[in-house]
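Lecture notes, continued. The same structure-token format from the folding unit now serves as the input rather than the output. Read the line below as a description of shape only.
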């Protein structure tokens, strides 16, 4: 049996924000995900971390990747 693998859809695109803040943003989400699964934080706290991620650069990353994606759709 072959393992089921999904390629990262962002690989061909560039986000300057992610290049600068990616490790910090990833760590925020990874830590919150682990804490949520382990029961250390509830859904409200997890959503607070998501909002913090968005304000810390996540929304910029989304916008930059979206802009890159839209360029190849034309």
């Amino acid at each position: 049996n072959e393992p089921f693998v999904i390629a990262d859809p962002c690989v061909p695109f560039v986000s300057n924000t992610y290049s600068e803040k990616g490790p910090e943003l990833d760590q925020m989400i990874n830590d919150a995900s682990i804490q949520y699964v382990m029961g250390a934080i509830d859904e409200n706290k997890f959503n607070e971390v998501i909002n913090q991620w968005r304000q810390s650069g996540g929304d910029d990353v989304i916008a930059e990747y979206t802009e890159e994606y839209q360029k190849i759709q034309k």
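Point for the exam: The mean pLDDT is 93.
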